[in-house]
Amino acid sequence: MILKNLLGRKTRTLLTLFGIAVGVAAVVALGALAEGFGDAYRTLGGGSGADLLVMQDEALDIVFSAIDEDLDTALAGLSGVDTLAKMIYTFASSDASPYFIVYGYDPDEFAIARFRIVAGEPLSDRTVDGRRPLILGRAAAEDLEKGVGDSLQLYESVYRVVGIYETGQAFEDGAAVVRLADAQALSGKPRQVNAFLVKVRPGTDVDRLRERIEQRHRHLTTTTSATFSDHQEMLQYVDAFTWSISLIALLIGAVGVMNTMLMSVYERTREFGVLRAVGWRPRRVLVMVVMESAVLSLLGGGLGVAVGVAAAWGVQQVPLGRMVVPRAFTMQPVLQGIGVALGLGLFGAALPAWRASRLTPIEAMRVEGGAAGTRGLQRAQRHVRNSALRNVLRQPVRTLLTIVGIGIAMMSISLMRAMGDGLTTQVGGMTGGAGAHLVGIEANASIDLSKIDERVVRLIDAMPQVRAAEGFLTGYTQMGDLPFFIVYGYQPRGLAIREFRVTEGEPLTTNRQILLGRVAATNLSLRVGQTLRIFDSTFKIVGIYETGLPFQDGGTVMTLRDAQRLFGQPRKVSFIGLWLHDQDEADAVIAAVEDRFPEVDLAQSSAFADGLTDMQILQAGTWGISAMALLVGGLGMANTMVMSVYERTREIGVLRALGWRQRRVLGMIIRESILLSLLGGVAGTVAGVVLGLLLNRLPLIESFLQFEYHPALFAQALGTAVLLGIVGGVYPAWRATRLQPVEALRYE
Fold it and tell me: In which region does residue 707 sit, left (phi positive, over 0), alpha (psi from -120 to 50) or beta (all else)?
């Protein structure tokens, strides 16, 4: 009986099923992605067989950790330590990706033993043909089409592949391993490591050893290998992001299920009256509706799991994609998908099932056409003059749920676009530096890991077209309750630091001083004259500054030398700012600098942020999320309009009999669909603006991000709503035009 009821409206059932499938597919695919990242961090912590992992305290992530490698002697001398190994974990630009993972190990230490050589030879200190040695993971070798003896370029350095290895872990098999000193050069951290891997002697109290390490070296934090991933903020951000995106699709899907089940209850009101009259109890009616919803959701969940697995498989086929998605699916994301589908069914059925169980036999038998409980609203809609709005209001509950579904989609789109535009503005403002005409970054590098030698800055400064060239450095840490805190290193008497307008105290003059952004000062409850400890150093707050950019006002400014020491990058800068004698020579200067220094990418400051790989990936992700939301919202719209056509089949037949042409009927349905979509679009955009403004007030968000709204965003939102209405109304409108008058008038 349940399947019979679902198949009674095949089109509605299919559209609802597809809507659920999209949401579940997002859960499965993104869950697999999060699981891949989790595996990577667990491998970093325990893959080598180490018992403890020691890294810099308050580092945002292990990739930003910087510890003097000379500490190995002090750590190795502690009672209970058997042996230790040094590790570098970083990203470098390769032939196929700007985010190619590179590990650095000492060939003579235990940690490299896990990289089992399957072709060629192990990593050693031997250099061949002037090329540095490198061993490549099998997955990376297949994706890059590299073999033993081939060359691989990382940034501006050329390496020789001396061996191919396997570990069984996707992140490692999609990466490369180089000598420790070479990895230090790639990461710009000479004599620094990201972490020490420690093996303890049998019988050692591991917790006591951890305490001794942290007591003697207060700038270090020590975790067991098993719990390392639990302490990584980046992994928590990935989990939060994937669930947030999945939640958007799930909310829209849940609204679609509720809409479908409510319409099913409305249509079958008299049927429920008959069942109640022949002895069905309210609980039995409730269970039937809930079971129908559960079956529908589970069918959609099964399809969604298949689509999600296929999407994850597709990512694995992209070069280096397999390193972010596990080669073998575990049951966790699959079970999550099925569980979410079942939850959608139960949530979506709650109101319809309760409504059906509350119907009395007499009340249900009197209902005409399933309009129970909406007479007052229907009487009100008769007074609406606009025919499209009047038709939309025929089923107020369905209309409201459809508007909610579209509104959630449009809210997510407006929020994502506002976030993307805000980040682009923040990055552009952060690197624009007091009116610099040109801004430079390490070629093909992420903005988080860019490093340029100060010698290059001095040589550029000496060029005749350049009035001044300065470098500055950015670093990341955690501070108090703020998990994301940016540190800027500038020349105290340079041009770029002038953008930090000091509103309290005095400007920066020497080392061991800092300027604190207004937002950071408020969030940390600090003022001029107090001190702030960053890693193992204490700084005096000499001034409070304001720039109007959360990225900057939520952080701190110190001298370039202090920042280089804190983040283990001596004589390195993250970005370059250039001031020209003649701004019209900008293109010529860019060409000259990039020709002479191929390790530098230059752009005019106004276009710098848009050209960054990080920003392009962010924009692509924003459009991908928007497309997902639109797909689910479009399915809901089509579902609503199809049901509207079903209900008005006889009415459409009358209109056709009275002389309405097919084009006029099509226009009527499309107008109703556009109106419904516009109502949802306006509601969703307003909700997105309000939510964005509220998020801007949270200390965590306020310290590094500002959702940015502008007229173009609202125009895009309205245009998207119109497009959604057209797309969602095409099939229902086409179906309406295909109805013949005689056939339609006979419709029951």
Answer: beta
